[in-house]
Amino acid sequence: MIRIAVDAMGGDYAPGEMVAGAVDAANDRPDIRIALVGRQEEVLAELSKFTYNKEQIEVVNATEVIATEEPPVNAIRKKKDSSMVVALNMVKNGEADAFVSAGSSGAILVGGQVIVGRIKGVERPPLAPLIPTEKGVSILIDCGANVDARPSHLVQFAQMGSIYMEHVVGIKNPRVAIVNIGAEEEKGNALVKETFPLLKACPDINFIGSIEAREIPHGGADVIVCEAFVGNVILKLYEGVGATLLGMVKKGMMSDLRSKIGALLVKPALKRTLKSFDASQYGGAPLLGLKGLVVKTHGNSKRLEVHNSIIQCVTFKEQQINEKIRASLGTE
Amino acid sequence: MIRIAVDAMGGDYAPGEMVAGAVDAANDRPDIRIALVGRQEEVLAELSKFTYNKEQIEVVNATEVIATEEPPVNAIRKKKDSSMVVALNMVKNGEADAFVSAGSSGAILVGGQVIVGRIKGVERPPLAPLIPTEKGVSILIDCGANVDARPSHLVQFAQMGSIYMEHVVGIKNPRVAIVNIGAEEEKGNALVKETFPLLKACPDINFIGSIEAREIPHGGADVIVCEAFVGNVILKLYEGVGATLLGMVKKGMMSDLRSKIGALLVKPALKRTLKSFDASQYGGAPLLGLKGLVVKTHGNSKRLEVHNSIIQCVTFKEQQINEKIRASLGTE
Fold first, then answer.
1. pTM of this prediction?
2. CA-CA distance, A283 to A315, in Å (whole number)?
3. Which of A310, B120, B151, B163 could be a cystine partner for B195, CB 3.0 to 4.6 Å?
């Protein structure tokens, strides 16, 4: 029985889409239990719109909400009765196996580390979203949890990313590469140059060398290792270039009558093709290396993303990812 | 009279496309002189295919070629009779105002600094390509010349980028932003945090604060300041995501008969729209802050890009960009 605490109040479409996604996940997997954490009345009002097995979903009251713009450390410390702090405490106390939130990234990162805590031996817990590629999906690790990382952190990211890709995504012997500005070993900044030989010497990963950013969307590696600043730039630029280009394609198609007719004809095929480049189907970004599982879904997540993020937690738990991380990196 | 030395031997399509682009530029602007530098026989064979004013184009013999994979420092030092070294010496000796090459980036960066030399007062010469956005074009500075930059370098990048955007691209009072992982001033890694107040205090730029990578393709700023590693990642990911998405759009359109017919109808409008997102129309990337002008065009440049890069040099010279950089940053 896997138990997941969902932050009903975090995200642009909370609580409506958070509740809807949780109901979908419960209906999809009769073997899971979900705790919707947030303002009881609001959550119950949303829940009443759906049909579901009452034994699978409970509502846990939390009167406060952490807003996106609040300074994270302060918010986690002061808002003891916020949906986020209450849910994270459930993970800490073993009342839940995992926590899913579309709320403030900063608060999730701080709360995950401070309340749930790191596995002993893990130096820094990386935020590791899956990003779509031509060939499927890669994990981008780290993507915002720790700026100014050290080489030893990056090696651990590579190890945790490999475990995740192998056992959650199902890619055997995942190819690990470090983001670099050239393919040769002598290229790079000080961090990359120091990290490269450590990755090369690391026995439990399949290190294939450097990857240039150009090759990431082509699926050049399964585990894309970088420090958080670069990872954040990659993740956000992926979104930005994608949105801009697709917006221009749509605009171009609507520019005259001839192409409007053409657009009607190409639309279904195009939609099918581009679906594979849509990150939402892959769920949220796990914060790896914590004693429990914490998953951050995109702030604008709707029911599909929330549903997928919950199912992702189930796979994570079933595949005993934390046990594997502990075996590989732990010092207890 | 503006004189431009063109590396006839560098790039994937050299010498053919380099020569063709040079001829186009000469025919476009009767007031310029071009020196095609490279293996005389090969260059003359290409030149014989075109009609042009013989007074405008001369061939300067250089028997060696620097290959892309050669270690740059070594190549520049040893291959004294390479097209690149010969052409850079022409700039140094005042026989040419500018140098355009589609050859090895590393060799251009090293050669530019070592042979042409920096303007006194410029700490590091940044490589600054123009990147397309929804609204037009922005300059991305630095993009590969210097890794592990210091805050003072980034401030100079902002100043030089502003001068370029204002006088070469024609954007009045260009908006300068620093690439960051959040919009707030307190966000960022150590370099960004140190640089932010310096940019804020810099009187001769229009600093608007941080820019997240997501906003770059939307045209959120005119001068995008970052250190070279991040700039390189942005530039290459731009290419990679763009190529992957457009490839997928094309593939999607060819997937069944219905959409193939539609594709024929949308094609002209789509082509028109996407042309504005095509970097090649903007010419190459200048290496700013040198005593002469050095422009790196993409390795796969064809005649259009070469032509545009040469015209860009003309604008650079006419607008007296180096004089403006010297007045703003110079210490002589």
1. 0.91
2. 12
3. B151
